TrEMBL record:
Keywords: Hydrolase, Metal-binding, Zinc
SUPFAM superfamilies, sorted: Metallo-hydrolase/oxidoreductase
UniProt name for this protein: Metallo-beta-lactamase domain-containing protein
Family indicated by similarity: Belongs to the metallo-beta-lactamase superfamily. Glyoxalase II family.
Gene3D superfamilies membership: Ribonuclease Z/Hydroxyacylglutathione hydrolase-like, Winged helix-like DNA-binding domain superfamily/Winged helix DNA-binding domain
Organism: Coniochaeta pulveracea
Classification lineage: Eukaryota, Fungi, Dikarya, Ascomycota, Pezizomycotina
Length: 299
């Protein structure tokens, strides 16, 4: 699954994407190599990161298997006179892991690590450290976008590689909103510097962007609650006012500023909010329609 954006952010991003070079040294220890897979879901392409200052390097993510990516990576390694000892996969989505076999074709001795590893891979655990000259990474398990999602702290810069939990443009989707928010809260106090995202440009103040993400999600949740509280004005067949809403009715109110063609995409985020509220006992689902608990059904 790709790092899909919300409807609002997808709508705004059409004219906001900055041009990024296919290879860019972002700091003395970090080189970003784009995955060669730009698109509306992957932005400028998947960010892969080559880390270290000596002959041994770490690699974060491998793109989605585009021939251009492995060609650029091979050229960069030759220029750096370096090789990759460890490849760290942030999560299972194909645009982050599908270049593994290409990597092993040019670097068969590279050890590949992933939380919940697949055949031939090694496990990443919460708190595990990876170190080469110039780069010390600590893995942090941050599920929500996916159950296996990991971020990495870079000690030398007090920075974080945020993968798809925090992006350089827009906002990310998630498998479980409550778990995702917990992970964002976990990430925010762990560093003070940059965020290197899975897609899009570097974020200068990573914790501030995470706080912005948390605020945005809480705001969406409040919008759903307030809409459920509002008076629909509908009357049921029994003659009583019906205060139950289906998902698309909620979307049309909450996403009034977004074209109708993007409402189906927005519905996914609204459903996630409703499921979180349902787990918390704040809303109920009856016959495909949602209402706040404590509000009476029509007679």
């Amino acid at each position: 699954m790709r790092a899909v954006r919300t409807a609002t952010s997808t709508y705004k991003m059409a004219v906001q994407l900055a041009q990024l070079p296919e290879v860019e040294r972002l700091s003395p220890t970090c080189i970003r190599i784009l995955g060669g897979n730009p698109g509306k879901f992957t932005l400028q392409g998947t960010n892969t990161y080559l880390l270290g200052t000596g002959p041994n390097r770490l690699l974060i993510d491998t793109g989605e298997g585009k021939p251009h990516w492995i060609s650029v990576l091979k050229r960069t390694l030759a220029e750096e006179k370096a090789h990759i000892t460890h490849a760290l996969l942030t999560h299972w989505h194909h645009d982050h892991v599908s270049g593994v076999q290409d990597l092993l074709s040019i670097s068969p001795d590279t050890k590949v690590f992933k939380n919940q590893p697949e055949s031939g891979q090694l496990d990443i655990t919460d708190g595990q450290k990876f170190e080469v000259e110039g780069a010390t990474l600590t893995a942090v398990h941050t599920p929500g976008h996916t159950v296996d999602h990991m971020v990495f702290l870079l000690a030398e810069e007090d920075a974080m590689f945020t993968a798809d939990n925090v992006l350089g443009h827009g906002t990310a989707v998630f498998e479980d909103l409550g778990t995702y928010l917990n992970s964002l809260e976990k990430m925010k106090p762990l560093f003070k510097g940059r965020a290197y995202p899975g897609h899009g440009p570097v974020l200068g103040d990573g914790p501030a962007k995470i706080a912005e993400y948390i605020h945005h999600r809480r705001q969406r949740e409040e919008q759903v609650i307030q809409t459920l509280k509002s008076n629909k004005g509908d009357v049921s067949a029994a003659g009583a006012e019906d205060d139950a809403w289906d998902v698309m009715e909620l979307v049309k109110i909450i996403y009034q500023d977004v074209p109708d063609t993007l409402h189906p995409a927005a519905a996914g985020g609204v459903i996630q909010v409703l499921r979180k509220l349902e787990k918390e006992g704040k809303v109920s689902l009856e016959d495909g329609r949602w209402r706040l608990r404590g509000r009476r059904s029509p007679l």
